């Protein structure tokens, strides 16, 4: 079974997977693009990702769409190889491959689980997959070069928008654009000491052999992502951990239980099970520091001073956010708040936490709030000053109010059309053959295979 199919089967509902696994062991060649083969298991693997993401039932038409995507990739890679100006270095390929395998190991429960599922060592998997990744990167580079050449004019945007009847256009709710400067309250020394004492007592119990780290993690750890798994976090890059945690994890001897140490999340004890380059497999226990009794006065005074400086000396808000905000996701971006799911700056006002809404209600556009308490997106309690950058009342979508949004949608539609025409032209100069299931379904649904001069046999 192809590696992609094997891994995707782990996270797709059985009812959806069944129609693809009945004869997955008997793999077959379903297409040849130039001198490159496409296996049925490759198409099945890509289709399973469609089913998982889109929550759709299996259909032959969807199977052909997956085949089309793989044909496109092979065609793009073939043309990229012919273009001597496109090069993909071994370092780039190896880095991309490492990142993908690390993601997969996290999904399936670590390196040992991945190796057991596929029946190959990690080194063998890398050797098998390296050229697949090189081909994907060649295709993506060639595709992006074409995409960057596609632009749209204002007249094209207006013409695209005019296709939609006015009474069919949606109404958007109140939207806001915000920037803020965040400071966290400092827990009391007594609260810090209490957390360290709890962590120390847990460590002593583990070291003495009275209990295991796994059992103590299930009972006491306050990390919701790992407590139920006995504190286990599979292969993770050191760069993805907060610096305080990474510093301990990078130097502690394998198998040893660390002394309690503090990070922004609380107090930890840690055991590294395996370290391979900058990837570690570990268990940990987190004891949070109670900040419910933290004195907000120092933070409020700090934020008031920052606000006064901005207003008195006309200092740029973005500059002050980069200097003084403690929120890692917004401070370096000048305090700009975005929807973490979409990256959009336009936020639905009613979807914000009530602490934010109460602050926004006091502001006119361009004004900066007084320091106020807030519940941040990660659930942490903090204090901030907020600038209301824009307020867009509820309205029906229109060019005057939503031009940037409409422009992006129109550009995406144009890119889809131009890229499809371009890919069809590229396919004319690459020999493509269909076999087996692909040939049978292409004859049944000829409109689904977009190959203008397809030779089938």
Automatic annotation (TrEMBL):
What GO molecular function annotation could you give as one example from this UniProt entry? peptidyl-prolyl cis-trans isomerase activity
Pfam families xref list: Rotamase, SurA_N
Disordered, as annotated region: 324-344
Per its UniProt record, what InterPro entries does this chain match? OMP_Chaperone_SurA, PPIase_dom_sf, PPIase_PpiC, SurA_N, Trigger_fact/SurA_dom_sf
**Keywords in UniProt for this one?**
Chaperone, Isomerase, Periplasm, Rotamase, Signal
Keyword Signal on this protein?
yes
Q: Which residues form the signal peptide?
A: 1-17
Keyword Signal set for record: yes
Domain PpiC, by residue range, is: 173-274, 277-390
Please identify the protein, giving its name as recorded: Peptidylprolyl isomerase
